[in-house]
Amino acid sequence: ADEQAMLKAQAEQKVEEERKRAEVAEEELRKLKAQMAALGSNNENS
Question: How far apart, in whole angstroms, are the C-alpha atoms of residue 28 and residue 13?
């Protein structure tokens, strides 16, 4: 039972790390889209 609890804790930690990584990736994507939108509007204005 003790080993099972340890494995469960490790699995939960992996899931948490993956979730954080996904959040960071989504934030980077948002920044990139915002930059591209800004570049697009700058090109139209000039």
Answer: 23
* Separation CA 22–CA 39 (nearest Å): 26
Residue 17, helix vs strand vs coil: helix
Rounded Cα gap, residues 17 and 11, in angstroms: 10
**Rounded (to 5) percent helix, strand, coil in the chain:** 95, 0, 5
* Residues 15-35: tens digit of each pLDDT: 999 999 999 999 999 999 999
Domain map of the chain by residue range? 1-46
| pTM higher than the cut 0.85 | no
